[in-house]
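Anyone up for a design puzzle?
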């Protein structure tokens, strides 16, 4: 099949060929970034270096100038502070727990992207295709990904990895629980093999150490090496089987390979080798794997995490998975196409994404707090990955599959609209008819030559079923009787027609399967659109939706990629980029890369734009006309504006007012103080609303705590009285209530509180306060700016125009500051969701119950005699009952206090932001009234002005090119595969 498709892609074909036109149309739509390799037009790190260089140049230009030249010490200090903040920006916070020796801190943010989904979906194979290299452990362990595999970028060809192993204490728990399970229960019965094989401790020990039940029973009965030697415990015996393991547990090991083969060889001692069943398997003790490689997908600032599928991990790994999942910025949810629109996990992730978008909504203007703008698909926090969408590979029943798909109602409707498919189908009918004629003609010649009297009948076109001809041709090998030139020529023609048939069938097959995945993607997007509409209706916003409120419409803000990693593995060695692109893997790779590059470009722009504005303002300051050039009349008007709106400072330079009669100072606050007072009033009002909401949250949480307290004793009695082997109860206690196949004790006890918290947090949105506040602060700024303009109504037209220009710049300052405030504030609020998660409450419960868990699993209740299991359970029930009197109230109180602390943190960030913005606005507007005195350092001032002008020109070019690159990348990044027909044609 691959040879046929390669021939198809390279052979000269008619213009109507679907594959040819699809690829060409997609190339027009998607530009270069839709192809296999996306190369960044601009390097964010180089931009940062250039900004630092220009900041140093600005510092050098203004440092030696006297204070009077820069309109006072405060203004000069402000300029130098701006230089420092650009030359040495603070590192971005890294959410993932990666040590700085593995990933150096950087101002450029890293975007965490997780590939999640059930076991057996081919996620690791897809990861290898996306990265362009195999770094996955799945091929070695033969059971799927063992632990979260974190992939980060470095520019070197070598591949490095850091492997972290679970603590010795965790392994001891597994071994101790395993040997207890081999003991008889209270009634003297042994656990069955089936029950043992379902136990997580037993499974880990058997698999990790390569032991059998017979081996374990032998170890259990084994005495010391000699009679005089004290007998060793089974735990000691098992660990002594592999002394090198003890040295690994609780440590991090680094491995390096100069290329992929060397890396996999260096990794093999820790990951095992395919086909190895006996002996120690070190990978089973891993808790995390961090890989550094030179891969395009992560070169833009993305960190890619491949998660184990469900059921693949021990309890400690599951907890590590939860912590990493909480750090994700984007989730790539892998799912089979036939289940993509029905699985409950898909709806769960869609609901979370809708909630994230709502909480990150930013109002542009007053009154728009509840009008949500469409979210670009390129910035979505969720993408659906349809896996195993094979198009290039074929199965035994491939022909029947294609026919069934063509008869499917939805797929048939798509195919009806596909002009290339229908044109190809007509050509296929004609070519297959011609091929049938050639086949029967050859057989007729052979029959004539052999003296056969069988009549030769030409086929009739009427009633001809072209599908019946799919397998209706002889072997390619020439028959012995084909020595006749006429027969050989006829056979050659038959082969040519057969080859054309194969080409058209391949095109037909690709068209049909493409339509299948278009339908699957459309179904997923419709489901997401329905959930978005439902969520807005639940918030009583149906009226605000207007004509957009249409049910059962595709929502293209959700990225959906139909991928086939198996196809990509077959297509990649051939070097045929067109075939690779059909697999969807290159499109997904570009999407992942763009997600990281997008955030880094945004971070650079956030640094560049305020700095350029500061440079422009400094240039205006250095090129302001002096008092002699300005003239007395205009100087007096400027001085009136200064005295009315400037914040008084002790070192303010003497202006022309010293030569003017009387005091011209007006009454009222400065621009800075006016803005701060207005901002403070609006901020306090919004924060007060948020505090009122927090009090509602407190009431709901306290109610949940009371419910949990009342239910605690009955719940814990129900948990410990579940009928099972006593060793399983001890295993649960030994693992602090978290044992994979048994209900989590901690979550079960805290569930009433968790339910109340989810209800309360769902109704409280601190980020919603930010959206409303931004619109209010913009309006507050506009009111103050209007007052400043009114105060200049009697000034010269040129001065009014300059004042208006400076105020326009100030509006831009304010808007940028508030945009950054919203992003930072939303990030802070969004991170608070971790504190209301099930994982958080589980950890909190473990901390409070850890001592009693350990006592229950400890030597006090070892054995089955004298009612030890019953006393063990009774002890734990009483312990929980006693702690519950205060434990749940403390959890509720801690959560509310934490929310108040977060609100205070955001409040401080708001105050810091609007205070800085107010000072910037006043300094910008002050350029309209600055009148420097003629000084002996005028030449130095002019020289500095030329240097600053050159800096501004470079910054202007940098900003323009960066914005253009961001626009181009945003337009060209693929957000679905295959692209719908109407979008391909655009």
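Challenge accepted. My sequence:
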């Amino acid at each position: 099949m691959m040879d046929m498709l390669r021939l198809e892609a390279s052979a000269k074909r008619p213009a109507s060929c679907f594959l040819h036109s699809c690829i060409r149309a997609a190339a027009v739509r998607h530009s270069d970034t839709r192809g296999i390799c996306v190369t960044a037009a601009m390097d964010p790190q180089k931009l940062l270096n250039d900004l630092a260089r220009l900041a140093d140049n600005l510092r050098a230009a203004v440092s030696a100038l006297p204070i009077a030249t820069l309109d006072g010490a405060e203004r000069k200090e402000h300029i130098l502070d701006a230089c420092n903040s650009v030359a040495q920006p603070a590192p971005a916070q890294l959410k993932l727990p990666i040590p700085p020796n593995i990933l150096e801190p950087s101002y450029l943010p890293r975007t965490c992207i997780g590939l999640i989904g059930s076991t057996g979906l081919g996620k690791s194979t897809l990861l290898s295709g996306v990265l362009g290299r195999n770094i996955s452990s799945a091929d070695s362990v033969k059971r799927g990904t063992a632990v979260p595999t974190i992939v980060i970028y470095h520019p070197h060809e070598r591949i490095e990895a850091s492997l972290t192993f679970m603590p010795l204490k965790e392994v001891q728990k597994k071994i101790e629980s395993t040997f207890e399970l081999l003991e008889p229960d209270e009634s003297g019965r042994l656990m069955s093999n089936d029950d043992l094989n379902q136990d997580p401790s037993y499974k880990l020990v058997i698999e990790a150490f390569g032991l059998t039940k017979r081996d374990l029973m032998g170890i259990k009965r084994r005495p010391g090496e000699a009679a005089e030697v004290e007998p060793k415990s089974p735990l000691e015996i098992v660990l002594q089987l592999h002394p090198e393991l003890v040295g690994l547990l609780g440590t991090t090991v680094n491995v390096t390979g100069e290329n992929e083969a060397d890396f996999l060889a260096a990794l093999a001692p820790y990951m095992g080798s395919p086909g190895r069943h006996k002996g120690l398997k070190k990978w089973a003790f891993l808790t995390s794997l961090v890989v550094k490689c030179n891969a395009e997908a992560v070169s833009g600032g993305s960190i890619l995490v491949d998660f184990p599928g469900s059921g693949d991990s021990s309890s400690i790994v599951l907890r590590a998975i939860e912590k990493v999942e909480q750090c994700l910025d984007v989730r790539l949810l892998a799912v089979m196409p036939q289940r993509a629109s029905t699985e409950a996990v898909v709806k769960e992730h869609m609901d979370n994404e809708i909630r994230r978008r709502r909480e990150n909504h930013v109002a542009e203007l007053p009154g728009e707090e509840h009008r949500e703008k469409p979210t670009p698909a390129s910035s979505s926090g969720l993408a659906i990955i349809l896996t195993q969408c094979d198009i290039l590979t074929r199965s035994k029943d491939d022909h029947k599959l294609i026919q069934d798909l063509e008869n499917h109602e939805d797929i048939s409707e798509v195919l009806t609209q596909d002009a290339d498919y229908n044109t190809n189908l007509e050509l296929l009918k004609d070519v297959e008819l011609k091929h049938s004629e050639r086949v029967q003609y050859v057989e007729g010649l052979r029959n004539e030559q052999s003296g056969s009297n069988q009549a030769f009948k030409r086929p009739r076109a009427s009633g001809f079923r072209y599908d019946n001809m799919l397998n209706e041709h002889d072997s390619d090998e020439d028959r012995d009787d084909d020595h006749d030139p006429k027969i050989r020529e006829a056979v050659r023609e038959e082969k040519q027609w057969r080859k054309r048939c194969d080409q058209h069938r391949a095109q037909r097959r690709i068209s049909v399967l493409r339509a299948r995945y278009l339908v699957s993607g459309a179904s997923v997007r419709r489901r997401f659109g329905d959930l978005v509409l439902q969520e807005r209706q639940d918030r009583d916003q149906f009226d605000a939706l207007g004509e957009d409120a249409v049910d059962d419409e595709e929502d293209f803000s959700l990225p959906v990629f139909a991928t086939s990693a198996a196809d990509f593995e077959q297509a990649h060695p051939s070097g045929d980029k067109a075939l690779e692109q059909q697999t969807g893997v290159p499109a997904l790779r570009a999407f992942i890369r763009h997600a990281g590059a997008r955030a880094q470009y945004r971070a650079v722009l956030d640094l560049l734009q305020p700095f350029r504005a500061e440079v422009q303002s400094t240039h205006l300051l250095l090129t302001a006309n002096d008092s002699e050039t300005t003239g007395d009349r205009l100087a007096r008007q400027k001085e009136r504006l200064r005295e009315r709106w400037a914040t008084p400072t002790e070192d303010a330079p003497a202006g022309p007012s010293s030569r003017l009669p009387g005091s011209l100072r007006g009454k009222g606050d400065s621009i800075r103080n006016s803005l701060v007072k207005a901002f403070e009033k609006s901020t306090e009002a919004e924060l007060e609303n948020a505090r009122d909401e927090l009090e509602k949250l407190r009431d709901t949480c306290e109610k949940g705590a009371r419910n949990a307290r009342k239910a605690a004793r009955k719940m814990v009695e129900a948990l410990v009285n579940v009928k099972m082997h006593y060793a399983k109860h001890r295993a649960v206690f030994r693992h602090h209530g978290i044992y994979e196949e048994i209900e989590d004790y901690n979550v079960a006890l805290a569930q009433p509180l968790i339910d109340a918290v989810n209800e309360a947090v769902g109704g409280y949105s601190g980020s919603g306060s930010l959206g409303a506040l931004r619109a209010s602060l913009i309006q507050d700024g506009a009111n103050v700016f209007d007052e400043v303009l009114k105060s200049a109504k009697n000034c010269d037209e040129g001065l009014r125009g300059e004042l208006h220009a400076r105020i326009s710049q100030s509006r831009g300052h304010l808007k940028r500051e508030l945009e950054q405030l919203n992003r930072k504030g939303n990030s802070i609020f969004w991170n608070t969701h971790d504190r209301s998660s099930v994982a958080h409450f589980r950890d909190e419960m473990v901390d409070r119950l850890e001592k009693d868990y350990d006592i229950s699993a400890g030597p006090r209740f070892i054995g089955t005699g004298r009612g030890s299991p019953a006393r063990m359970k009774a002890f734990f029930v009483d312990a929980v009952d006693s702690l519950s009197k205060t434990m749940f109230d403390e959890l509720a109180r801690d959560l509310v206090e934490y929310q108040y602390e977060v609100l205070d943190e955001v409040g401080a960030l708001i105050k810091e932001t609007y205070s800085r913005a107010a000072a910037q606005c006043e300094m910008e507007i002050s350029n309209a009234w600055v009148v420097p005195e003629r000084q002996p350092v005028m030449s130095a001032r002019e020289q500095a002005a030329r240097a600053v002008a050159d800096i501004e020109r470079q910054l202007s070019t940098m900003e323009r090119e960066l914005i253009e690159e961001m626009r181009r990348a945003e337009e060209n990044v693929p957000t679905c595969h295959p692209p719908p027909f109407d979008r391909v044609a655009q």
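A detail worth pointing out: The radius of gyration is 36 Å.
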